[in-house]
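Methods, example record. To illustrate the input and output format used throughout this study, we show the complete record for Sucrase-isomaltase, intestinal. The sequence lines were provided to the predictor; the line carrying structure tokens was produced by it.
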Amino acid sequence: MMEFSLFGIPYTGADICGFFNKAEYEMCLRWMQLGAFYPYSRNHNGKGNPRQDPVAWDATFAEASRDVLNIRYTLLPYLYTLMFEAHTKGSTVVRPLLHEFVNDKTTWDIYRQFLWGPALLITPALDEGVRTVDGYVPNARWYDFHTARDVGVRNQMVSMPTPIDHINLHIRGGYVIPWQKPENNTYYSRMNPLGLIVALSDSGTAEGSFFWDDGEGIDTVERGKYLWTSFAAQSNTLTSQVVHNELAPVDRLTLGVVKVWGAGSVRITTATLTDESGTAHTLTPQHNLDTQELIIDATAKSVRADQRFTLTWRTSI
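The corresponding predicted structure is encoded as:
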């Protein structure tokens, strides 16, 4: 899972950004945004051709590219977990909407949107000059990745605002997504605590998993040198269950920021993290009643993510 940076920008991007003049500026940026969500993602060019990397354009282009590639870096733990599941179960990493919503015939003809696994919906802008895109919202609860808000619609086509520096991303309710704070390369981002996005379903539940190994070894799965953890949320409680753990001590992670989406409009005032030893750590939650996002930062408690833990949150009522 090693990716590197170029001039401070993580050097991944669209493999098909092959335009050669400023007239193609906008489409090249759109391809950078799309390419950030290719499983194997890099800006590819031929020797002797004009430069097309982000900093070859201007500061606006470079900043927009950096922003979307930092989203990719943030979500690499989720992508890495999907790769593990593809390796061990034969599942798909990138999948069409019909794979998740096979009974919805509308999804059968959709080819301008795609999913990472079951839970991340990507709706790119693919045409020059557009500032909105028409995207289908399948029958599930969906949260805007950028704002944490429930989009409030389902089973319909929606016109999504798409400024030049924006790509529409949505998280499906009912899933737990692992994430990390991005750095200039994965050597450093891997050192950051493990974050979780707990996107609650209509019934207030979510589930997910997390795979981790040394990031560069060969046959870590076959040798059993990895961590495999499952997560489940219900009744204002998130629990982890360690399925397999033979991580080397140097590769261990601590739990960082947990974001609960769809946490409700009644203020949550207390949170408690209980580690494997049974020690209870009191945390101070931040609850945005407008977006209904709950943020619980466990970083200072240094609770290991490769051991079982329980996180609960409560209102004052």
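Annotations derived from this record:
Helices lie at 25-35, 59-74, 76-89, 97-100, 186-189.
The CA atoms of residues 131 and 164 lie 7 Å apart.
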